[in-house]
């Protein structure tokens, strides 16, 4: 199950407040995906959900766990918000790999 939360939602989880952009769950695990911190420069959010889905599915194809898939979804969605247009902000593979490596100190 993947539920995106738009621009994010403040949630109370185990007596602490977190900001989550998505909720992901499979038979064994569940996670609230926190934002990866990319600057947003456009107001138009058209295509952001599709970008999240593309990043999530890319992670699945690469054999990543659902938490990392959710994070990849957020990374691609945030890239899509850096330029005008629904697809203009989609990252090329080198950009995506670089950002993933910066965040998680591992190769994509």
Walk me through the topology.
Blueprint: E1 2-13, E2 16-25, E3 30-33, H1 48-61, H2 66-80, H3 93-104
Antiparallel strand pairs: 1-2, 2-3
Largest sheet report: 3 strands, antiparallel
Topology as H/E string?
Answer: EEEHHH
Question: Structural class of the helix and strand makeup?
Answer: alpha+beta
Q: Largest sheet, order of strands side by side?
A: 1-2-3
Q: How far is it from the N-terminal to the C-terminal residue, by CA?
A: 23 Å
User: How much is the radius of gyration in Å?
Assistant: 13 Å
SS elements, strand count = 3
Count of alpha and pi helical runs: 3
Unreliable residue stretches: none
Residue share in β-strands: 15-25%
Mean of the pLDDT scores? Answer: 87
Key terms for this structure?
globular, 108 residues, single chain, 3 helices, alpha+beta, three-stranded antiparallel sheet
Describe this entry's structure for a reader.
The protein has 108 residues and is an alpha+beta fold. Helices cover 38% and strands 24% of the residues. α1 packs antiparallel against α2. The longest helix is centred in the C-terminal third of the chain and has 15 residues. The chain is globular and about 40 Å long. The relative contact order is 0.17.
């Amino acid at each position: 199950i993947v539920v995106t939360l738009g621009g994010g939602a403040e949630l109370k989880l185990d007596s602490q407040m977190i900001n989550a952009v998505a909720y992901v769950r499979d038979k064994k695990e569940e996670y609230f995906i926190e934002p990866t911190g990319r600057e947003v420069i456009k107001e138009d959010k058209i295509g952001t959900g599709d970008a999240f889905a593309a990043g999530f599915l890319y992670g699945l194809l690469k054999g990543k766990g659902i938490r990392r898939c959710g994070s990849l979804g957020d990374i691609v969605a945030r890239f899509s918000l850096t330029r005008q247009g629904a697809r203009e902000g989609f990252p090329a593979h080198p950009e995506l790999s670089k950002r993933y490596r910066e965040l998680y100190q591992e190769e994509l």
